[in-house]
């Protein structure tokens, strides 16, 4: 795991490029405290910070091919590097180290961009070709590892693993894009390829980038959800057996490391399955980590302990209180370089794991998206079946119903109104599923300039047409699953997982978000993958001999913090200051009166579901304040 950076330009002089890349790497020490490197090449400078996982004594980057033509910087982990190494040795390649970086470089030398479908892992890497004087970069299929870049006015590109690194280069201005404000309020994030900043892009998951010697930048997709039918199980028993084999294979791959490996353990089905499979695969002296709370309704302490006892793990349960979060908020906010309304749980879980003695931790993230753990898997198809009847109603009747729904104080009614007002089919419903603020509230919050952009872009996800084209022929379950993976999982959950784990120099791995597993699972019968009567039945049945029965049969409980209670208690002073006129003024794209009203409605109301809307706005204001301080 690393932080990578680069400056490609035939116009900039070598010393200017090197200075900029050194600054970027310095800004990412937390991503790689073990090693640093920089290579100044003819037309490009590449740099990195390394968190050593495989062959810690070797694997220094940037790494160069034997003939000096190709130079690589790499962030992530290639889990099948030993298999690839044997294949490349048969092609005539020799190796000096036992690390995945050298194998990745040889794979690119041998197969160029055709190496991408061969890689099993999480990655963002860049390769400079000194003969053709071109840069090639790529990001893993699901966006587990990030890559940000900006085109230079004079031609060329600057890239890095973090936005803060780009700005540290001294070559990129930190100018907020007014259009991004409305997008953030809609989605908890600014969906790729855009970011919060003008002229700065986020390479989307499963995409590559090329920059040629004339400074021209081109991007394209290298991975899509499979179109062809794969090896489909004929019976549910065969499916469960096949799923178990795929899960075991993924856990085996994700356990590989030359440093201590542990696991997050919330006590839910997903993390329990991961820990159980780790233990069954031979992990000894396994360390597990969970967060617990004094608020009993939110704490999964007993469930996590049941799993830890079942597998004999060395379990660490970290108590998190509202007072502790309030005291730590300046550090937490400083850790992200784009605002987020989520991720604080990952911040503390990562801190606990790193302090507990591991450098790598596995997480159960992805189980809900693959096995239908969200209400959307039932609600969205049901609503889609009713849409034709709804649209047959007279316009006046529909308007009357929408007005009544929008006037209700509860979040659920307002969200239903948005579905009915703006969706015409399954994809548009799925597009709206992860909206944070109701459309009327979102537009009211925005000052005139930002509102104009929001009205121009509309209420739907910006990738609606692309996703609908890619998913042509998918059934309802596949459609919802893909939308969840492509949007909330990629742009919020995985991004926050990277940011907050790397803030503590921890490599966080997600074995359920595995390309090999997902490509096997994708064509399987929906009836096998999803049972609306028993959430995650498939995962529970595939691990029924290892996951305790009490966990397999317990109601689903999301891995979340007691924010509704804390925001009215320990976090209230922070929020009162955040929503003060002086603080709101630092974010001129918001209307102060509407922001204040949103906060007051939450404090005086009883809709606990509204906490995330209020917190999302608070984090935006804090982000704007942070920008003024840097």
- Tell me the name of the CATH class of the largest domain: Alpha Beta
Structural class, by secondary structure, is: alpha+beta
Query: How much is the average pLDDT?
Result: 95
Helices, by number, come to 28
CATH topology of the largest domain: Glutamine Phosphoribosylpyrophosphate, subunit 1, domain 1
CATH architecture of the largest domain: 4-Layer Sandwich
Q: Please state the overall shape, judged from the principal axes of the Cα atoms.
A: globular
Radius of gyration: 24 Å
- Low-pLDDT ranges: none
Largest sheet: 6 strands, antiparallel
* Through-space gap between termini: 27 Å
Number of DSSP strand runs:
17
Number of domains: 4
- Strand content is 5-15%
The portion of residues assigned to helices is: 40-55%
- CATH homologous superfamily label of the largest domain: Aminohydrolase, N-terminal nucleophile (Ntn) domain
Keywords:
17 strands, globular, Glutamine Phosphoribosylpyrophosphate, subunit 1, domain 1, 4 domains, 630 residues, alpha+beta, six-stranded antiparallel beta sheet, Rossmann fold
Task: Describe the secondary structure blueprint for this structure.
Blueprint: E1 2-8, H1 14-26, E2 35-41, E3 44-50, E4 63-64, E5 70-78, H2 81-90, H3 100-111, E6 121-129, E7 134-139, E8 148-151, E9 157-160, H4 163-168, H5 178-187, E10 200-202, E11 207-211, E12 217-221, H6 236-255, E13 261-264, H7 269-280, E14 287-292, H8 301-311, E15 314-319, H9 322-335, H10 344-355, E16 360-362, H11 367-371, H12 376-392, H13 395-407, H14 411-422, H15 426-432, H16 439-445, H17 448-457, H18 464-470, H19 476-502, E17 507-509, H20 515-521, H21 526-529, H22 537-542, H23 549-552, H24 563-567, H25 572-578, H26 581-584, H27 592-604, H28 611-629
Parallel strand pairs: 13-14, 13-16, 14-15, 16-17
Antiparallel strand pairs: 1-3, 1-9, 2-3, 4-5, 5-6, 6-7, 7-11, 8-9, 8-10, 11-12
């Amino acid at each position: 795991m690393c932080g990578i950076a680069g400056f490609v330009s035939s116009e900039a002089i070598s010393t200017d490029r090197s200075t900029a890349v050194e600054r970027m790497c310095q800004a990412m020490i937390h991503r790689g405290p073990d090693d640093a490197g920089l290579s100044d090449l003819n037309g490009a400078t590449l740099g990195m910070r390394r968190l050593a996982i495989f062959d810690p004594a070797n694997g220094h980057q940037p790494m160069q091919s034997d003939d000096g033509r190709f130079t690589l910087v790499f962030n992530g982990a290639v889990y099948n590097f030993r298999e690839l190494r044997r294949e490349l040795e048969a092609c005539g390649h020799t190796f000096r180290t036992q690390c995945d970086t050298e194998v990745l470089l040889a794979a690119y030398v041998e197969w160029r961009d055709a190496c991408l479908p061969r890689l099993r892992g999480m990655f963002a890497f860049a390769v400079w070709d000194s003969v053709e004087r071109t840069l090639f970069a790529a990001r893993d299929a699901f966006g587990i590892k990030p890559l940000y870049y900006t085109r230079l006015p004079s031609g060329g590109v600057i890239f890095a693993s973090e936005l803060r690194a780009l700005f540290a280069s001294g070559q990129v201005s930190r100018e907020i894009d007014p259009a991004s404000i409305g997008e953030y309020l809609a989605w908890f994030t600014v969906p790729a390829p855009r970011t919060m900043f003008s002229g700065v892009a986020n390479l989307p998951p499963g995409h590559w980038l090329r920059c040629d010697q004339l400074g021209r930048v081109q991007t394209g997709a290298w991975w899509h959800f499979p179109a062809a039918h794969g090896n489909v199980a004929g019976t549910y028993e065969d499916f469960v057996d096949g799923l178990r084999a795929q899960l075991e294979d993924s856990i085996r791959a994700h356990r590989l490391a030359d440093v201590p490996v542990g696991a997050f353990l919330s006590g839910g089905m997903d993390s329990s399955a991961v820990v159980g499979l780790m233990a069954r695969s031979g992990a000894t002296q396994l360390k597990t980590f969970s967060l617990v709370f004094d608020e009993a309704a939110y704490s999964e302490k007993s469930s996590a302990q049941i799993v830890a006892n079942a597998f004999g793990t060395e379990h660490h349960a970290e108590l998190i209180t509202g007072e502790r979060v309030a005291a730590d908020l300046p550090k937490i906010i400083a850790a992200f370089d784009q605002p987020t309304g989520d991720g604080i749980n990952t911040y503390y879980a990562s801190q606990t794991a790193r302090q507990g003695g591991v450098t790598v931790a596995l997480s159960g993230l992805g189980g809900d998206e693959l096995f239908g753990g969200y209400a959307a898997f039932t609600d969205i198809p049901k609503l889609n079946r009713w849409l034709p009847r709804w649209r047959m109603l007279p316009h006046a009747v529909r308007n009357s119903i929408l007005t009544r729904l929008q006037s209700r104080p509860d979040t659920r009614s307002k969200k239903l109104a948005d579905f009915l007002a703006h969706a015409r089919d399954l994809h548009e419903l799925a597009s709206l599923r992860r909206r944070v603020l109701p459309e009327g509230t979102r537009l009211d919050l925005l000052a005139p300039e930002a509102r104009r952009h929001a009205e121009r872009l509309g209420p739907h996800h910006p990738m609606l047409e692309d996703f609908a084209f890619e998913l042509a022929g998918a059934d309802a379950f596949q459609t919802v699953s893909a939308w969840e993976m492509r949007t909330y999982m990629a742009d919020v959950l995985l991004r926050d997982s990277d940011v907050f784990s790397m803030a503590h120099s921890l490599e966080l791995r997600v074995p359920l978000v595995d390309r090999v597993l997902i490509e096997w699972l994708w064509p399987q019968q929906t009836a096998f993958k999803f049972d609306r009567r028993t959430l995650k039945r498939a995962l529970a049945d595939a691990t029924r001999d290892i996951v305790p029965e009490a966990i397999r049969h317990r109601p689903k409980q999301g891995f979340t913090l007691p924010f509704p209670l804390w925001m009215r208690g320990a976090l209230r002073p922070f929020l009162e200051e955040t929503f003060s006129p002086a603080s709101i003024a630092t974010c001129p794209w918001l209307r102060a009166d509407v922001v204040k009203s949103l906060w007051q409605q939450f404090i005086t109301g009883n809709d606990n579901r509204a906490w995330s809307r209020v917190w999302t706005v608070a984090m935006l204001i804090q982000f704007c304040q942070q920008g003024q301080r840097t």
